[in-house]
């Protein structure tokens, strides 16, 4: 939505040590095509070194089989194409799974319930794994051949359904999984109350699904015609009775908190549903959201922040966790508008047009940066926005990170970080 309805997306791909590539590509192209275009822009001898692209949001490898539009890529995004595969780490509440460069998965931790083995996924995990997804009590691994291997609590998805193949993406709530197949159908398993049972909407999930979004206990599938199909726990987004007529067509993208969803439509309209305290009610700001086109939307676990095309800021949801930007919105305008936003678990931070930084939300989670805002450089905040410090990067910085920046001219800033511990 950053580029309105323009079908062409302008991207920058950084290949560390090799080149910076500027790419213009149709938003309907898939990620495999984007990777091919990236490779053609570098020397032939280096092309085999590039195997994946890293998203600018969350520092996760972009999923194969998706169009740029459904992958959430927007004009001006900066992607990274590492020369080595970046190891991935997934975690439940009590165990970890690390995906290595050769497609093997290592697991460690503990299994709280007898019979629910979280630390031994079996022989299927020794090779061929391309992605590992996890929720509180189970793991799901996607393999190169489109099959899925699961382990962990049986009641919440630790056993995959029979005949689950041709899968291109796996999504999760807190206690269930959903798999998108290459043919556009969706299969789900796990706790029925959290999206593990889609019987009531099974027919609608048989074809034409392009992407699946999740709250804590509900899924929302976006179909090719822009229709939205939901299932799971009603209060956290499965119940769309109040907005169903607005979700029948024309939806371009969906965003979520733990208890709500918000959709942007082709005509610029915004539709919110789910728990009102988690952002499911945008009636207070609907006039502001309709006044200008939305450039992007970000979320903490219970609040949304809209980056408007004119650079203004609109927020709603849980006030303490970032849903109230009283004072901040005016400060943003005084500084010339927004340049970019980053979201943590319970706070937001933003760079303004004049280079200044503002923050709002829970103070202990980064919602107040009065004492350090003047020390923050744009380079550091951009790096943080890439997810390299995790979703709690505000707190990580305040508690345990040291930062050194050096500038070579106005447009070339480098950042070094060390001693960053997990929170």
TrEMBL record:
**What highest taxon heads this organism's lineage?**
Eukaryota
Recorded protein name is: HERC2 protein
Organism, per UniProt? Symbiodinium natans
Instruction: Name the encoding gene, please.
Output: HERC2
